[in-house]
Amino acid sequence: MTLHHDIARKLAEAGIPLTSQRLLIACELFAEHCHLSADELLLRVGSLTPDISRATVYNTLKLFSQKGLVQELVVDNGKRVYDSNTAPHPHCYNADTGELTDVHQPLQLAGPLPELPPGTALERVDIIVRVRNVA
Amino acid sequence: MTLHHDIARKLAEAGIPLTSQRLLIACELFAEHCHLSADELLLRVGSLTPDISRATVYNTLKLFSQKGLVQELVVDNGKRVYDSNTAPHPHCYNADTGELTDVHQPLQLAGPLPELPPGTALERVDIIVRVRNVA
DNA sequence: CTTCCGGTTTAGACTGTGTCTAAAAACTGA
DNA sequence: TCAGTTTTTAGACACAGTCTAAACCGGAAG
Ligand SMILES: [Mn+2]
Ligand SMILES: [Mn+2]
Ligand SMILES: [Zn+2]
Ligand SMILES: [Zn+2]
C-alpha cells in the first residue's frame, strides 16, 4: 500500500532485516530516482527526527549496494554517489558544475566486449559522457 | 635524441616552461604507458635525488592534464590516476584488486551520442569495463 | 518479568587524498 | 646587481571514508 510498505518488502526480498534507520534511508533513496552521496543523504535524513549517525548512513549504503538495491558510482573528485536506478544506463557528467544526470537514450557498445583478464568476470560497463560548460 | 630531449620538446610544444622537477616527473610518466596516482608518482621520484615536494607533484600533474599531456581518470575509491596515453581508449577495472588496465580493442558506441544538456560541449566519453575476480 | 545474546547503531578517533597559503628559492631581463 | 616574476616548498588544512569499542535494541529462553 504505502511507500513504507513497498520499501519494507523490497528490503525483505533482499534479505535485509528492517530497522527504523534503514527504512528512513531507503525512503529518501527510493522516493525518486536520484544520485546522492553519503553526506548529502546524511544531510537529508538529518533534517528529520531523530538524527541518524554518519556511520550508519555509510554502512547502510554499502549494505544496500552489496545487496543490489542501489548502484555505487564514482565519477569524479573522489565522492561516491548512489544511484537508486540499478539498471545499467549511461550517465552524463558536467565537469564544471559536478552535476550528474541520466542519459535516457540507451547507449550501446558496438561489437563484442573485449576478452576479460583471466580469472575475472564482468560486473558491469560504465559509460560516462563528460561535458563542460561552453564559454 | 635522448628521452630527455623528447620530453623537453613535448613540454615546450605544450607551452610549459621546463624545470628540473617537471622533467623528472614527465620522465617517469612518459617512459612507458602507465596509470599512476599522484602519491605513487611521488614515491617513484622520491627514490631519486633530490626529492620533489608533494605539492609540486600535485601541481605538475594538474598542469600536465590541463595542457593535454596526460589524461586524468577517476575510476574508484577517490584516487585519481594519470594516464600517459591521451588518446580516447576504454579501460578495464578490477574492483577486487584495484588494477586498472587498458582495453586495446577499440570499444565504440553504437549509434549517435545523446543530445547534451544545453550550454555544454562534449569533453570525452569514458568507458570502463568493471570486472571482479571469480570465486 | 528478567536475563541473555546476536545484530545494529553510535560517537569519535583515525587514515588517506587532495587543497591552500605564505615564504623561500630560482629564474629573467634590465 | 637588482627588481620582478614564476616555481617550489613545508606544513596546515579540508574532506570523504574507515575503524573501533561501547551502547543499544529486540527477540528467545528461562
Ligand atoms: Mn542514474
Ligand atoms: Mn589508459
Ligand atoms: Zn518515509
Ligand atoms: Zn629521466
From TrEMBL, chains A, B:
Subcellular location(s) of the protein: Cytoplasm
Protein name: Ferric uptake regulation protein
Signal sequence annotation: none
Protein family per UniProt: Belongs to the Fur family.
Keyword Glycoprotein on entry: no
Domain of life: Bacteria
Tagged with keyword Transmembrane helix: no
Source taxonomy: Bacteria, Pseudomonadati, Pseudomonadota, Betaproteobacteria, Neisseriales
Alphabetic keyword roster: Cytoplasm, DNA-binding, Iron, Metal-binding, Repressor, Transcription, Transcription regulation, Zinc
Subunit structure: Homodimer.
Pfam hit, one: FUR
Predominant localisation class: cytoplasm
